[in-house]
Amino acid sequence: MATLPNPLPKLASDPSGRSLGLRLPPGRLIDATGDGPWHEPLLWHADKSAAPGTWAALGAPAARVGLLPVLVGLGGSQGGPASWQLAPAGMSYPGDHDVEDVIAECWEADEDEELTELFGPSGVDWPGLAPAGSLTLDPATCAAQIADSLCDGTRDWLDDPHLALVPARRSADIPAAIGWTGPLNHENDVARLCAVLRSWEDRFGMRVVALGFDTLTVSVAAPPTDLAAAERLAVEHLAFCPDNFAEVGIRTYAEALLGDRDWTFWWD
Fold it and tell me: What is residue 111's predicted lDDT score, i.e. its pLDDT?
């Protein structure tokens, strides 16, 4: 995939990041993939667990030099990014994909009674993109707030979060930039899903906040406040991550999206 120049190699000889204008704590560069070491570091993560305020203190300055923040879970049976079987060589570029094409292709047309009730006789077809939300909070501020809330250790999908820095053009591209394979059983090329994330970034002020082995949490600065819009968005979520709907229907899921400032996705 097309990438910006990667500042991370400089941290090998300058761990504090002073040459980049940063003041980083002790950390680790990750270049491990499922096929062996990558030709350059894919990400850096701090040795110490993240705490409230870590995102703002480290992430905001790093973003100015092209390193975007994300929390990564280092606990649990799957370990951290060094053990995640990252596959950057298999990723395309998110900008090469059209969000409507991706969602339509991911959509599994189904004789679903609830979809027909919501969207009429054509409910088995994808009803199109949900309308954009209205920003009620700065997206960067929202991301910092959600990141801080994830540091309390109560989320079982994010065990022992550490702040990571990733060379990426925009927050939505972070999964593809590191070759994340969390949705492997649903989509082999996560850059296609990043095209959806880009669209959510534009329409809902979304930022990628946390990654686990197979989980993704994003912040949402402009969540839907209208049920009809939330129902359309729920259909996008269904195409993006069908596993989120294993035990919940579209209508109930849509109701939970109203005003919700963080979305979490899990792939089996």
Answer: 45
Instruction: Judge whether residue 222 has pLDDT over 70.
Output: yes
Residues 6+ apart with CB under 8 A from 226: none
Q: What is the pTM of this model?
A: 0.92
d(C-alpha 61, C-alpha 44), whole Å: 14
- pLDDT at 247 (0 to 100): 86
Percent of the chain with pLDDT over 90: 77
Select from 108, 95, 113 the least CA-distant residue to 235: 108
